[in-house]
Specification:
The structure is a single chain. By secondary structure, the chain is an alpha/beta fold. It has two domains: 229 residues, Alpha-Beta Barrel (TIM Barrel), CATH 3.20.20; 68 residues. The chain has 14 helices and ten strands. The strands form two sheets. It has an eight-stranded parallel beta barrel, surrounded by five helices. Strands 3-4 form a two-stranded antiparallel sheet. α1 runs antiparallel to α11, α3 runs parallel beside α5 and α5 packs parallel to α6. It is globular, with a radius of gyration of 20 Å. The two termini are 35 Å apart. Bound molecules: flavin mononucleotide (FMN). The site of flavin mononucleotide (FMN) has 21 residues, from β2 and α9.
Length: 326
């Protein structure tokens, strides 16, 4: 991992099973079916979040409703994430969570997409600390029924926006502050500003979780070593590329055949989506999204990516996948 100030961190204890690892929410990828099937095949993740749910015309979208209900039945103790622009919207969403039996809520202050940021949602709120304050006031009124956490970037346009948010975050009893140290303008690219994370994150009084570009055991240990005050790590794309990564970071033994475990995970995931009522075409679409990450477990990932891009129907899809796992 490259630290922006050029510093490096030494390696860490490879048997650190106590390091808390959370699965990042990834819209379209880590819904309840994925999380449930993942938990059946892999170890190492301590907690997960559902991708954000929202209100449209005052109502939850049908798919968000299903997501929240199914997650609850699963009982994996995940945290529902909401995205909201106004205290009224946040209050309605929290009310719905409490009514349906949820015990936690995470506020999305990181979504970088203009469709949300233009409506002052996600990272669109970051230049407005007083509005973040009002939202947190609203959310924290639901304490103790709901434990409140936030997931944030460093800013919308500039990472200097974060310093004005620190006293706001410190004014509330947040159970966690997950920081992805990029601006929304960067989307998912460019350097992760670990220097700003270090400087600002240590001023926060709530537990801080570090998130961003953790793709290897070494990345995880470097972040942990550089910032010993963090409460844990959150991993998104790195976990999709290598589902064994959380266990490896914790120094747990790898399975005797990675390919076999991946194959069983894959087949159960396809079955899970089918049981959830998805059409074969929709499942192929969904799985193609996951394969943009999973291809890296196989030789010639580039060629494989091209082949997956062309696949549209389930028979052709199963043919391609069957050859990989055989
Ligand atoms: C396809 C995609 C969907 C995402 N959806 C969400 C989301 O619903 N809520 C959220 O807080 N972050 C979302 N994120 C951001 C991730 O949770 C995470 O913060 C980001 O990918 C950086 O971590 P990583 O480098 O470990 O992936 C999404 C990211 C991607 C790539």
């Amino acid at each position: 991992m490259v630290f922006r100030n050029g510093s490096t961190a030494a390696g860490a204890n490879p048997l650190d099973v106590s390091m808390r690892i959370e699965m990042a929410p990834l819209q379209g990828l880590t819904g309840h079916v994925f999380r449930e099937v993942y938990a059946r095949h892999f170890v190492g993740v301590d907690h997960s979040y559902c991708p954000f749910v929202r209100l449209r015309a005052g109502q939850l979208l049908a798919r968000d409703k299903r997501e929240l209900a199914a997650g609850l039945v699963m009982g994996d103790g995940f945290t529902p994430q909401i995205i909201a622009a106004s205290p009224a919207e946040a209050s309605s969403l929290c009310g719905l969570l409490v009514e349906s039996g949820h015990r936690r809520v995470n506020l999305n202050l990181g979504c970088p997409f203009p469709m949300e940021t233009k409506r002052k949602k996600g990272a669109g709120l970051l230049p407005y600390p007083e509005e973040v304050e009002k939202l947190l006031e609203t959310l924290c009124r639901f304490e103790p029924a709901l434990k409140v956490s936030v997931k944030t970037r460093l800013g919308l346009e500039d990472d200097s926006e974060f310093s004005a948010l620190v006293p706001i975050f410190n004014a509330f009893p947040l159970s966690a502050i997950i920081i992805h140290p990029r601006t929304a303008k960067q989307m998912y690219k460019g350097t992760v500003a670990w220097d700003v994370f270090g400087e600002q994150g240590r001023k926060l009084t709530s537990p801080v979780i570090a998130n961003g570009d953790i793709a290897t055991i070494e990345d995880a240990h470097r972040v942990r070593e550089a910032f010993p005050w963090i409460a844990g790590l959150m991993i998104g794309r790195g976990l999709l590329r290598d589902p064994f990564l959380p266990a490896a970071i914790k120094g747990l033994d790898p399975p005797s055949s990675r390919r076999q475990v991946l194959g069983h995970f894959h087949d159960d995931l396809v079955e899970g989506y089918s049981e959830a009522g998805m059409s074969p075409g929709h499942i192929v679409d969904k799985m193609r999204g996951l394969w943009t990450y999973l291809v890296h477990n196989f030789p010639d990932a580039e060629k494989l990516t091209k082949r997956f891009k062309k696949v549209r129907d389930m028979d052709k899809y199963q043919e391609l996948v069957g050859a990989l796992f055989r």
